[in-house]
DNA sequence: CGAATAGTTCGATGTTGATCGTACTACGAT
DNA sequence: ATCGTAGTACGATCAACATCGAACTATTCG
């Protein structure tokens, strides 16, 4: 069992436009909320979503490339976690504000 | 000199997806930053933007309909202000987090 | 009134992006 | 080695949207 991380921007490369654009999509917001409830990370497939697997992969890639989440490989599974520390450092309050919104 | 406000969603009608999507566009983010620096409001045309007047109007409408800003008519001018109170109440920290981002 | 100014609306165009199915890769188990 | 599972990559399609120019509205000024 190995563990490898997928490419993602460094903290200083994260741009607020990309983060906001990434978060401004209903399915992706749903993903973020699921991740926020699972600080230890969650397998992509375990998130209930109204889209097919390939669309799900597309959204996860978008979020990862924007710097919103981190993905590591664990066997055949991909475990994603929110990059809470980086986001809080860059945009203090942003994540909390978004997550406090009524669902 | 009359003053009339343009239609906009009530606070409880504002949806976080719309807000994020509205903010996730470079030109619109530029507008928001200008508004944040002008609490008393600013005329649309006085914001320096790399787009034509009609595109500017389009973005201002998007932001207004998302609930991000308020526009009132003042003579031939349209004065826009950030709906900071509403946004802070709905998503505490969100606006601050966004505005604290490096330009 | 007519002209100038500030801004919007409309229609067209090009680009971006969300979605899907299919084919593919990687890993684990039998 | 073969099979099943988890997920990604690719190509196509369709909808959403950013942009522009031109025509329009509304207000102020002369």
Report a brief summary of the structure:
2 copies of one chain form a homodimer. The first copy, chain A, has 103 residues and is an alpha+beta fold.
Descriptive account of the structure:
The structure is a homodimer of 103-residue chains. Chain A has 103 residues and is α+β, with helices and mostly antiparallel strands. Helices cover 45% and strands 17% of the residues of chain A. Chain A is built from 5 helices and 4 strands; from the N terminus they run βααβαββαα. Chain A has helices at residues 16-23, 26-36, 53-66, 84-90, 94-99, and strands spanning 3-5, 42-43, 69-74, 77-82. In chain A, strands 1-3-4-2 form a 4-stranded antiparallel sheet. In chain A, a hairpin with a 2-residue loop joins β3 (69-74) and β4 (77-82). The N and C termini of chain A lie far apart (37 Å). At the A-B interface, α1 and α5 of A face α1 and α5 of B. Chain A binds a DNA duplex (30 and 30 nucleotides) through residues 1, 25, 27, 43-45, 51-62, 73, 75-78.
Tell me the count of domains of chain A: 1
For the largest sheet of chain A, list the strands in their spatial order.
Answer: 1-3-4-2
Stretches of chain A where pLDDT is under 50 for at least 5 consecutive residues are: none
CATH topology of chain A: Arc Repressor Mutant, subunit A
Number of helices of chain A: 5
Strand content of chain A: 15-25%
Q: What's the order of the H and E elements of chain A?
A: EHHEHEEHH
Report the oligomer: homodimer
Structural class of chain A: alpha+beta
User: Sheet bearing the most strands of chain A, described?
Assistant: 4 strands, antiparallel
| CATH A-level architecture of chain A | Orthogonal Bundle
* Pair with the biggest interface: A-B, 23 and 23 residues
Mean pLDDT of chain A: 94
CATH class of chain A: Mainly Alpha
- End-to-end separation of chain A in angstroms reads 37 Å
The CATH H-level superfamily of chain A is Winged helix-like DNA-binding domain superfamily/Winged helix DNA-binding domain
Share of helix of chain A, binned: 40-55%
Rg of chain A, rounded, reads 13 Å
The number of strands of chain A is 4
